[in-house]
Each structure stands twice: as structure tokens, then as C-alpha cells.
Write a structure and sequence with these properties.
Elements lengths: L2 H11 E2 L8 H5 L9 H8 L3 E6 L10 E5 H13 L9 E6 L1 H4 L16 H8 L6 E6 L4 E5 L6 E8 L2 E6 L39 E5 L4 E4 L4 E6 L3 E8 L5 H18 L10 H13 L3 H21 L3 H4 L4 H8 L1 H20 L1 H4 L10 H15 L2
Antiparallel strand pairs: 1-10, 2-3, 2-4, 4-5, 5-12, 6-11, 7-10, 7-12, 8-9, 8-11
Helix pairs in contact: 7-8, 9-11, 9-12, 9-14, 12-14
Length: 384
């Protein structure tokens, strides 16, 4: 990669620590010398139960996880540091903790305005089922294997303290890293990738974009960029996965690819199975977290929130609250129209999709045709 290309990528990826200096977590979770403040964290979250991965063990293409009391994890972490970062339990990494959902009253952080058009969390907040806001905490040496983010979403990750090293591959480069069976590597730094009999296209791949992220800085990961991440120091970070009008079409393409993969896997049962198409949807949802009907509801919730703002405006009291409608208002009415246009484009494609049309759509309210008509009318009125 040429130097000017590398500098261009750095400019795109890293946001200054100025964006996080006022966060409660940056003030309170960190000691004077930039280390995790274990005493403060135990005081606030000691009784929580958290997901912890073992970085020393490979389970399929990830690390096995267990649920631990937070106070037990902090005890382990302290002992791990005292023992020169070694333990018979392995290197344990607290990952994917839904702290914001569990402790909504805590002053932890504020989503930067550049990332505030966040359809994923807007939808899952609306149905009160899940969210894609996470806290990571881990000792020096903890790491995350090679992967791309859920639904091929964007992600942003802010270091509260500590430093990370990122290895990033632009979308499409992962194809050169697959083995002869089509599987992605667990660790892109493993010497085995040099074996052409196992990884026949590895030599065609570009070197990764390498970033060292300092305390306070935010890294932005584009859709479909596979990456591998290392904690260079004892590190705490906050991460969001997010989709908006700029990459929702990529999410839709991803879902179509996932369904096609499922259909190929169980194609031999297509004829004897009466509900084969439904079973494909169920398997896809178990693997990815969403099926075509929920994707329709996802688009509907996003669209209806924007129509509400366009049709009814937003009063001062609502604007002061941390709600999706307030975020839409902050971004502006033209942004709401932009979101509706992108929703119309993807919803039109979904409605015409043969696999979608084979499902029982009577439970969808309003029907896809009626929702499309409503969206197009709202756009026309807003542009008058």
C-alpha cells in the first residue's frame, strides 16, 4: 500500500480523543496514570454478571465464552497483572457486555453526532429485545480473532483507557484469505496462511491497514471490513455496531447471501419438506439474528419514526430527550427524507424478492405495498 493511501485510510478511521474527553467513563473509570480504576468499577458494577471469552482457546472460529460475576473477573484481572500476565485460566477478555442496557442511569458516554443515525439500536430499542452497544475490558495481550461485524454493519470503538492494535482488510480482500474450503482464518497472522496448499490465494491479498489506537481515540470500521484486534495494554473500550441509510443496502445484500448459503446447505431436503422456505428463514435467523420478515419490520420502524417527525415535527421537550426522534431532529429534516428514500429503495427490492413473497406475509402490518405508498407520499409532501 502506498504511503498516501495509508494516510488516507488513517484519516478516515481515527477520531481524536477530543470527542471523548467529556465522557463520564473517561473521567471516572481511569486512574491518574491511565489504568483501569478497578475500585471504582467494582463499586458501580460489582454485582453484575458479564460475558468473558478465553483468548487462549479456539472454538470454531471464535473463543469460548462463559458468564462470570464482574467482581470475580476483576479479581482475576488483578491477579493476572501481578503474575506478569499469566494464569492457568488463560487470557480472559470481557467482551460484548451490554452495560448501557443493564445500567441506563450511569453517565458513561455520549454517542458522537457522526454516528447518531443508528438504525440498529433504534430498532432494537423500539422492540426492547436487544441492542448493539457493548463494553470491552481486557488485559494486555487479550485479542479478538479475524471477523467482520454483524449484518456487515459499521462499527465504532472508543478506548476509555489503554491502546489497541487493529489489522484491517478492505471489503473484498477477505476472499483472498479463505482456505481451499472457503473458510476464513481464525488468526490472519498465523504462519499457516503461507501454505499455498491450504490458502491458495493468500499471496494475492494486500497487507492489512494497521492502526494503533491510543486512549480516548475512536476508530471507525466501514461495512464489510474484516479485522483482528489486540489490546497492547490493559484496555477498556466502548463499541457500537450500527446501520443507517448509507449501508442498509449492504445489510440487505448480506441477508440475501446468508439465505442463499442456507438454501445450498439444505437443498437436498427441498422436495420432501413442505415448509422448506420457512425452515431456511429459521436457520438464517438462528445464525444471523434476523430473517426477512423481521428485516421488513426493521425497515418499517425506521421509516415510521421519520414519517412521524416529518408530519408532526418535534416539540422542545422531546428534543431534549435521548430518543431516536430527537436524534433525527438533530440531523435535520433533509436527513429524514434521505433515510426514507434509502428505505424505499431497499423495501422495493425486498417486496420483489421471490423468497420474501413465498412467506406468509398476512401478519405484516401494514402490508408492504401500503407501507411503500405511505413512504413515497411522505417524501413527496416533505419535498414540496
Amino acid at each position: 500500500m502506498l504511503l498516501h493511501d495509508f494516510l488516507f485510510y488513517l484519516w478516515r478511521f481515527i477520531f481524536s480523543s477530543k470527542f471523548t474527553e467529556d465522557w463520564g467513563s473517561r473521567r471516572s473509570w481511569v486512574t491518574w496514570d491511565g489504568k483501569p480504576d478497578f475500585d471504582y468499577l467494582l463499586q458501580k458494577f460489582g454485582e453484575a454478571v458479564v460475558p468473558v471469552a478465553n483468548c487462549d482457546v479456539k472454538e470454531y472460529n471464535s473463543n469460548p465464552k462463559e458468564q462470570l460475576p464482574f467482581k470475580e473477573y476483576i479479581k482475576y484481572w488483578k491477579e493476572y497483572i501481578k503474575n506478569d500476565y499469566r494464569s492457568s485460566r488463560g487470557c480472559l477478555y470481557l467482551k460484548d457486555w451490554h452495560l448501557s442496557r443493564a445500567f441506563p442511569e450511569q453517565d458513561v458516554y455520549t454517542t458522537p453526532v457522526y454516528f447518531s443515525s443508528d438504525w440498529l439500536n433504534e430498532y432494537w430499542d423500539a422492540i426492547a429485545v436487544d441492542d448493539y452497544r457493548f463494553v470491552y475490558m481486557g488485559p494486555k495481550g487479550s485479542w479478538t480473532p479475524f471477523h467482520a461485524d454483524v449484518f456487515r454493519s459499521y462499527s465504532w470503538s472508543a478506548n476509555i483507557c489503554g491502546r489497541k492494535k487493529w489489522l484491517l482488510y478492505p471489503a473484498g480482500q477477505e476472499e483472498y484469505l479463505k482456505d481451499r474450503h472457503g473458510n476464513l482464518p481464525f488468526d490472519v497472522t498465523a504462519p499457516s496462511l503461507q501454505d499455498r496448499s491450504v490458502y491458495p490465494r493468500y499471496n494475492q491479498s494486500q497487507p492489512p491497514v494497521e492502526i494503533v489506537q491510543e486512549a480516548g481515540e475512536i476508530v471507525f470500521i466501514p461495512s464489510g471490513w474484516h479485522h483482528q484486534v489486540y489490546n497492547l495494554e490493559d484496555t477498556i473500550s466502548i463499541n457500537h455496531n450500527w446501520v443507517n441509510g448509507c449501508n442498509v443496502a449492504i445489510m440487505w445484500c448480506f441477508l440475501q447471501d446468508e439465505l442463499a448459503a442456507v438454501q445450498r446447505e439444505i437443498n437436498e431436503w427441498k422436495d420432501p419438506m413442505d415448509d422448506w422456505h420457512l425452515q431456511c428463514q429459521l436457520i438464517m435467523k438462528s445464525c444471523t439474528g434476523i430473517d426477512y420478515k423481521e428485516f421488513y419490520n426493521f425497515l418499517k420502524v425506521i421509516a415510521e419514526n421519520r414519517i412521524s417527525v416529518l408530519e408532526n415535527g418535534l416539540d422542545d421537550e422531546a428534543s431534549a430527550k435521548n430518543t431516536p426522534k430527537a436524534a433525527i431532529s438533530t440531523l435535520g429534516m433533509l436527513h429524514a427524507v434521505f433515510d426514507l428514500k434509502r428505505t424505499v429503495k431497499v423495501l422495493t427490492s425486498l417486496s420483489a424478492n421471490e423468497d420474501f413473497k413465498k412467506l406468509d406475509l398476512t401478519s405484516l402490518s401494514p402490508p408492504p405495498e401500503a407501507l411503500l405508498h405511505h413512504l413515497k407520499a411522505a417524501i413527496d409532501i416533505a419535498l414540496l
